[in-house]
Amino acid sequence: MTQSALSARLLRIKPSPSMAAKALVDKLRAEGRNIVDFTLGEPDLPTPPHIIEAAIAAMRRGETRYTGAAGTPALRRAIAAKLARDNHLDYRPEEIVVGCGGKHIIYHALAATLGAGDEVIVPKPYWVSYPDISLLTDATPIEVNADSANGLKLTADALEAAITPRTKWVILNTPNNPSGAVYSRGELLALAAVLRRHEHVMLLSDEIYEHFVYDGGRHVSPAEVAPELRDRILVVNGASKGYCMTGWRLGYGAGPKFLVDAISKLVSQTTTCPNAIAQAAAIEAFAGDQAPVHAMVAIFKERRDRIVAGLNRAEGLACPAPCGAFYVFPSVAGLIGRRAPDGTLLDTDTEVANYFLREVGVATVDGASYGMSPYLRLSFATSLNAIDEGCALIAEACSKLCPSR
Ligand code: PMP
Ligand code: GLU
């Protein structure tokens, strides 16, 4: 028994493209190839020492057992305090559920609420997992074009036009992966005005990149600007990005109690609870010294400027500076239709990504994986040296292309 053993639901989805791209990098490196890796979105800096110490202390205290499905009361209190401090949001600990990463919370929230016939509005470009997680629940992702004249952000008109009686969720991600777009208070107010008119629609607000905003901008939570929608908003966030804790697997959701209880019920039947040691460490992350977060954002700003300048030196690439997150999303329209030295036609962004990997050993992710072509996504959560080397290699690869006919 092979493929026939798999469910229709499973066969509908693909592996996470960013995870798959990183797995390919690991394989090529194991074979001895030198690869400059811009694939996976995870800070390369170590978890700050005070967070690691908190984990060690928790283990020494014996906090090594199952916790409640929704997380420890102490962590849920710390998250409530963090939401008040950073986001001006007023959630009680009972309105917060902790999971094994933000992705885990998103999966459980959608699985707890969606079924066949339901629709999920997913603005394009989107983070790779939103459509596939929706498909896993038998719901239908409805991809809606973000406005290229408006920095790849969803407009109120586009949202209004996409809502049907079957719409259950809208997923908004600010700061955005992959575009780096950061929604302003005014833009969020306009979207909230649409949602106010459609009482059956819930908003999943993915704020995992909240700390990564550049040039004096500030992350604003939709839940802050639209308190009247509080009972229909699930705020998703976590420790992965801001605190360099991707491998600890710690995320959370804050929302109406019926939804938090539903997610907790599902968690009690799947992962039981989040990792107890990661929870203890996360209390220190959210409540402790925030200086490492600010120091990291300053480092990332320099990396952003360096990669934007480097990529714009490559013939055929056009790379705007992202306002937030840690990805650039350059257009490769100038390379489409050109031929590689081996004769391969670069007719899609997937071919461009393959060409960069094959020709000069630079790994990126194709825009098609984010629902938008012809673009590439590059994570700049990597060293300045890697950025300099990778950009020089990309420029070299572009200069080797035969002119379009
Ligand atoms: N949302 C977005 C937009 C992401 O890019 C990621 C990256 N992994 C996540 C959620 C989930 O992160 P994690 O599960 O590590 O909390
Ligand atoms: N969110 C990260 C990324 O977009 C990690 C990989 C993933 O979760 O798919 O690269």
- Taking pLDDT < 50 over at least 5 consecutive residues as the criterion, the unreliable ranges are none
What spatial form do the alpha-carbon principal axes imply?
globular
Please summarize the sheet with the most strands: 7 strands, mixed
Using the CA coordinates, give the radius of gyration: 21 Å
How do the strands line up in the largest sheet? 2-8-7-6-5-3-4
Order of helices and strands: HHEHHEHEHEHEHEHEEHHHEEEHEEEH
What is the CATH-assigned architecture of the largest domain?
A: 3-Layer(aba) Sandwich
The ligands bound in this entry are: 4'-deoxy-4'-aminopyridoxal-5'-phosphate, glutamic acid
Helix content: 40-55%
The total count of helices amounts to 14
CATH topology of the largest domain: Aspartate Aminotransferase, domain 2
CATH class type of the largest domain: Alpha Beta
Number of strands: 14
Average residue-wise pLDDT = 96
| Domain count | 2
Classification by helices and strands: alpha/beta
Describe, in plain words, how this protein is organized in 3D:
With 405 residues, the chain is an alpha/beta fold. The chain is 40% helix and 13% strand. The protein folds into two domains: 3-46 and 292-399, Aspartate Aminotransferase, domain 1 (Alpha-Beta Complex), CATH 3.90.1150; 62-288, Type I PLP-dependent aspartate aminotransferase-like (Major domain) (Aspartate Aminotransferase, domain 2). The protein has helices at residues 8-11, 17-30, 49-60, 73-87, 102-113, 129-136, 156-162, 185-197, 222-225, 257-269, 276-287, 291-312, 349-360, 384-399; strands at residues 36-37, 96-99, 119-124, 140-145, 167-173, 202-206, 233-238, 251-254, 327-328, 338-339, 345-346, 362-363, 365-366, 376-379. It has a seven-stranded mixed β-sheet, with helices on both faces. Helix 6 links the parallel strand 3 (119-124) and strand 4 (140-145). Helix 4 (73-87) packs parallel to helix 11, helix 5 runs parallel beside helix 6 and helix 12 (291-312) runs parallel beside helix 14. The model has no long low-confidence stretch (mean pLDDT 96). Glutamic acid binds next to helix 2. 4'-deoxy-4'-aminopyridoxal-5'-phosphate binds at residues 41, 101-103, 127, 173, 177, 206, 208, 238, 240, 246, 251.
